[in-house]
């Protein structure tokens, strides 16, 4: 090689190094909070695609657990959030904190036309706040179902996916599982459960209640809007949930004093360890079991529905991704908005759907529909869609709690889901309180929380 070529080659290498150093020096860091701790790994992989396309931006992915939430909210309210983008606003964006998030109507959000629902008014529907859009959720709501270990169920000689179509079928299944559990030292519980106010007294409550003929939202909503007394037990659709769950508790199908069991440490850890065959949960339980044991096999079936309805959480603007307003005052604000837009692009939505199993409520024609292969979709959602459990229709509207949320008095404890209610539920399940008395507690708490809805 000639001396001239050596010099030119050296100069080229030097220029490349200088350019790389320049890019690195100019690289903007955007901190993103994973939608769930369980999804942090998948979301890092998705963001790596963005980073390759945008080498001047580095995405730092972090997670927060439920125990971290109060401290996180304190920093949000102080205007000093420890992140730029919050993957899931659930429990953090409230009436007291919503102004700390960017209104998407005030920035260049690129994907409004891709949504298959009225995304610009979704937040207003549950808060009453007009002209404010903090999130643009591209996914349908999550689903809850029974989840079970098929090998253990087979060992018990049972096949609930093929046989449970009515409430009496479920009663028969639980009775047989109880007999099996009583003689199998590995199985501690028939239907494992713990205390989680929102999951049990929102997701369980709504999804099980609406399977009864008079349990639909049209009969639930009047309770929340003050059009019917909670103490009118015969016309209170929630009576079905509490009656059937107490029946199951009295028969020993649920853990003793289940309302005192810690959700993650006792219930979820126990089910992952296969201390029970059966539970009732959303998508996260499937993910947690498979993360802990990749070889684990899970299956699912619907809570038997006499109404023909099966529950889906509404497309929620409070369980979606948002930018912190504080990030718009930082030097990396352009990088934050670029990352946020990409996270909602067809390319990213497809990858997110395939990673978590969420079904898009979004036009995917430019990239093709996602291939959903996650266990919950394959074993439960698709079978519902295919009619395996009979002719069922998804109920994906807003529940009464959602529609009344905008009227809730600031600082009031939630009527049903607050942790202080666990002890009250314990009294009911142990027979120390009647259903009528429990409904009186609800009525009193509702009146305190929603004074503007109380009929004068």
UniProtKB/TrEMBL annotation:
Family assignment from sequence similarity: Belongs to the bacterial solute-binding protein 1 family.
Keyword Membrane belongs to the record: no
Lineage of origin: Bacteria, Candidatus Moduliflexota, Candidatus Moduliflexia, Candidatus Moduliflexales, Candidatus Moduliflexaceae
InterPro entries reported for this sequence: Bact_solute-bd_prot1
Alphabetic keyword roster: Signal, Sugar transport, Transport
Transport recorded as keyword: yes
Gene3D superfamilies referenced in this protein's UniProt entry, alphabetically: Periplasmic binding protein-like II
Name of the protein described by the UniProt record: ABC-type sugar transport system
Signal peptide region: 1-25
Species this chain originates from: Candidatus Moduliflexus flocculans
């Amino acid at each position: 090689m000639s001396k001239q070529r050596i010099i030119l080659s050296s100069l080229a290498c030097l220029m490349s190094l200088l350019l790389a150093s320049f890019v690195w020096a100019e690289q903007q860091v955007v901190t993103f909070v994973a939608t769930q701790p369980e999804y942090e790994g998948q979301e890092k992989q998705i963001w790596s695609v963005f980073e390759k396309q945008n080498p001047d931006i580095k995405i730092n992915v972090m997670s927060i657990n439920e125990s971290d939430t109060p401290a996180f909210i304190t920093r949000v309210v102080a205007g000093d959030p420890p992140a730029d983008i919050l993957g899931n606003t659930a429990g953090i964006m409230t009436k007291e904190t919503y102004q700390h998030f960017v209104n998407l109507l005030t920035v260049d959000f690129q994907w409004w036309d891709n949504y298959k629902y009225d995304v610009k008014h979704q937040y207003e529907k549950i808060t009453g706040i007009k002209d404010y859009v903090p999130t643009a959720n591209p996914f349908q709501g999550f689903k809850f179902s029974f989840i079970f270990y098929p090998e253990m169920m087979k060992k018990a000689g049972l096949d609930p996916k093929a046989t449970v179509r009515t409430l009496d079928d479920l009663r028969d299944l639980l009775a047989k599982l109880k007999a099996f559990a009583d003689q199998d030292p590995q199985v501690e519980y028939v239907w494992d459960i713990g205390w989680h106010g929102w999951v049990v007294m929102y997701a369980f409550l709504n999804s099980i209640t609406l399977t009864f003929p008079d349990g639909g939202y049209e009969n639930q909503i009047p309770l929340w809007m003050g059009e019917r007394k909670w103490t009118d037990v015969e016309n209170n659709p929630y009576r079905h949930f509490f009656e059937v769950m107490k029946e199951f508790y009295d028969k020993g199908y649920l853990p003793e004093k289940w309302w005192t069991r810690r959700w993650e440490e006792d219930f979820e850890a126990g089910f992952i360890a296969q201390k029970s065959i059966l539970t009732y949960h959303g998508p996260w339980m499937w993910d947690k079991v498979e993360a802990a044991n990749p070889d684990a096999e899970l299956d699912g079936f619907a809570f038997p529905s006499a109404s023909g309805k099966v529950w889906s959480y509404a497309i929620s603007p409070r369980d979606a991704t948002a930018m912190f307003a504080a990030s718009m005052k930082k030097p990396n604000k352009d990088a934050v908005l670029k990352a946020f837009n990409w996270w909602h692009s067809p390319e990213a939505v497809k990858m997110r759907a395939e990673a978590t199993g969420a079904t898009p409520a979004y036009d995917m024609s430019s990239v093709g529909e996602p291939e959903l292969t996650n266990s919950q979709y394959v074993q439960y959602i698709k079978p519902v869609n295919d009619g395996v459990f009979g002719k069922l229709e998804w109920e994906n509207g807003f529940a009464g709690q959602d529609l009344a949320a905008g009227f809730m008095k600031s600082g009031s404890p939630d009527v049903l889901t607050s942790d202080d209610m666990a002890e009250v539920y314990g009294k009911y399940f142990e027979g120390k309180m009647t259903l009528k008395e429990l409904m009186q507690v609800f009525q009193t708490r509702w009146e305190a929380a929603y004074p503007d809805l109380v009929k004068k």
